[in-house]
Amino acid sequence: MTTTPPDTSTALVAAEVFGPTVQGEGPSCGRRAAFIRLGGCNLACTWCDTPYTWDARRFDLRAELTRTPVTDLAARALEGAPGLVVITGGEPLLHQHQPGWTALLHLLTAGGAEIEIETNGTIAPAPITATAATRFNVSPKLPHAGDTEPARIRPAQLAALNATGRAAFKFVCRMPADVDQVAAYTAAWGVPAARVWVMPEGTTTAALNAHLAAIANPAIKAGFNITTRLHVHAWGDERGR
Ligand code: SF4
Fold first, then answer.
1. Is residue 3 part of a domain?
2. 50 CB under 6 A from ligand 1?
3. Read out DSSP for 80-139?
4. Is 1 a domain residue?
5. 122 CB within 6 A, ligand 1
6. How far is the CA of 46 from the centre of ligand 1 (A)?
7. Which of 120, 137, 139, 148 to mutate to test the pocket of ligand 1 (most atoms within 8 A of CB)?
8. What range does the domain containing 189 cover?
């Protein structure tokens, strides 16, 4: 069987590419990595730390987002041989049916990178996405994000991500009741506790520390893993780190 090579003359709408830095969150926390941040999101979380990728009311998206050749995205991400490339957003899976998506995955894989894809869990991975991703960092949103439950919780899509066997489920939490909600959700979805990471909400060290202190004990008691946001501790809310 022959396969058609991906069209590397394609482009994707991106906000930024940066690295090497570290993956600051989840199972790969602390690991050297580069990031490709694509534009657009299908949610509108109140505490979103990347609203410049989707919120046209607060940002000039024509200035924030650029249709960028995938060869440029891949070349910049692979500079400095980060080993791991994280495709994030926004919601990057919004792009997965564009030719540029396939080409980008091909270029990163050919460049020797492992690929983590960060998603809010509302979109099922296409076969090409499921094949190329080393890991999905799935971050379903709790009520405090402000999105409606039908918008933020999509059981069939979460099940598809879970079925890849390569999904880590990461939840932004502020208080013990949030951890209880995580336990209820993940039990209903059949996600083992060992594949759950609970993370404090915050874009300052003070906020992260306060929320972490509130959620650490209940998270451990529930059998979950804990992650911080290492990049915030190192560089605050600085963009592109
Ligand atoms: S899903 Fe992520 S990128 Fe989209 S609004 Fe929520 S926090 Fe922001």
1. no
2. yes
3. T--SEEEEESS-GGGGTTSHHHHHHHHHHHHTT-EEEEEE-S-SPPPHHHHHH-SEEEE-
4. no
5. no
6. 9
7. 120
8. 11-235
- Residue 220 confidence (pLDDT): 98
Which CATH number does the domain housing residue 192 bear? 3.20.20.70
Question: Residue 39: CB within 6 Å of ligand 1?
Answer: no
The answer to whether the beta carbons of residues 103 and 80 sit under 8 Å apart is: no
Residues in the chain: 241
Per-residue pLDDT tens over the stretch 67-111: 999 999 999 999 999 999 999 999 999 999 999 999 999 999 999
Percent of the chain scored above 90 by pLDDT?
94
Q: Are 3 and 17 in contact (CB under 8 A)?
A: no
Residue 44 alpha carbon, nearest atom of ligand 1: 5
| Range 174-200 average pLDDT | 97
pLDDT at position 41 is 98
Q: Residue 23 C-alpha to ligand 1 middle, in angstroms?
A: 17
Inside any domain, residue 86: yes
Q: Please identify which residue in the block is written with the tokens 């990595």.
A: 33
pLDDT of residue 3: 61
The number of distinct structural domains making up the chain is 1
Reported as a single tens digit per residue, the pLDDT across 129-174 is 999 999 999 999 999 999 999 999 999 999 999 999 999 999 999 9
